[in-house]
Structures are given as structure tokens and as C-alpha cells.
Amino acid sequence: MPEGKVIKDLVDVNAIIREMAESTSMKGGGALAIFVGYVKGVIDGNEVHELEYSAYEPYASRKLQEIAEEECRDDGVLDVRIYHRVGSLRAGEPTIYIFVSAVGRAKAFDKARKVLERIKHEVPIFKLEKRADGEYWVIGDGVRMRRPLSQKGKQD
Question: What is the C-alpha separation between 155 and 87, in angstroms, rounded?
């Protein structure tokens, strides 16, 4: 069953794989593509201390659920699960999980990529990169804006 939501903690990847494989194999499923995004430790030669994710809730979770349900309607796609973490995360920590079960690998991989692109463009999840050279709002694929000093220490 499609699922999309904002979470704070890690997910049990093996449990989700097992659940999705068991629930889709008798429907013709034969492939499960998994994407896990994680915090980079270095950006532009500068060490990243942490990445702070925040979400406009409950809208962000509703939008993730909507994407999972819509993308699951595609012929050959059997299940889509999306889990996006929020909070302060350090280098190497997972930030997003996308699971797509499909009848074949090409469909599963293509759909996982499409789901990720939709999330980046449609879901109100924000990230503040805290680096050795300052703090930056990440506002798109590789686009960063330095956080003004006047915002530091204020409630975001």
C-alpha cells in the first residue's frame, strides 16, 4: 500500500523490503528499487557540520502521500513508499528513503527517479546547511543562499 510521510527517526529498511516483496510478489512484482539520500560531509571544499531539515506540516506529509499514491497508479508499479526525515542530521545520516516495487527493474528505477524529482519540486521541506564557512539555505539543485547573520539564533 503506498505511503508517504515526514519522519524523525531512521526506518528499518530490511523490514520494508520484506513487507513490500511479500505484498507484491503475487501481483507480478519482481523488482524493488531503493533510493536513500544522505547528508554530504563536504560541500564546495567546506565541512558540513549538520543539515537541519524542517517541513511545513501536516501539508508536507499529505503531499508525500499524494505523490506515493499517484505514482503507484502507473501501469507496472505495485507499491511506492516515501519517508523524509526532519531534524538536525550529520554527515552520512540518511535523509530520505524511496522504495518502488514494480514488475521489472527498468520501471522501478525510472519511477524512483521520478518520485525523487517530484519531491524536490513539490513538497515543502526546507534544509539549512551548517558548514565551516557559514550557514546556507539550500533552495534547489545545488543552489545555496547564505543565511543572514540576523537570522541566527532566532526560531526558524
Answer: 14
Task: Locate 23 and state its grid cell.
Answer: 505484498
Show the DSSP H helices in the chain as ranges: 13-24, 59-72, 105-122
Q: What is the DSSP letter of 16?
A: H
- Give mean pLDDT, residues 4-9: 98
Q: Does some domain include residue 156?
A: no
Q: Is residue 37 part of a domain?
A: yes
Whole-prediction pTM: 0.91
Banded model confidence at residue 156, pLDDT cuts 50, 70, 90: very low
C-alpha to C-alpha distances, 24 to 14, 45, 115, 120, nearest whole angstrom:
15, 44, 19, 27
Answer positive or negative: Cα dihedral of 105, 108, 110, 112.
negative
pLDDT tens, position by position, 24-36: 999 999 999 999 9
Q: Cβ neighbours of residue 99 under 8 Å, at least 6 residues apart?
A: 16, 17, 20, 32, 33, 34, 79, 80, 81, 82, 112
Q: How many domains does the chain have?
A: 1
Tell me what pLDDT residue 143 has. 83
Residue 152 lies in a domain: no
- For residue 144, the model assigns a pLDDT of 87
Q: Are the C-beta atoms of residues 62 and 129 closer than 8 Å to each other? A: no
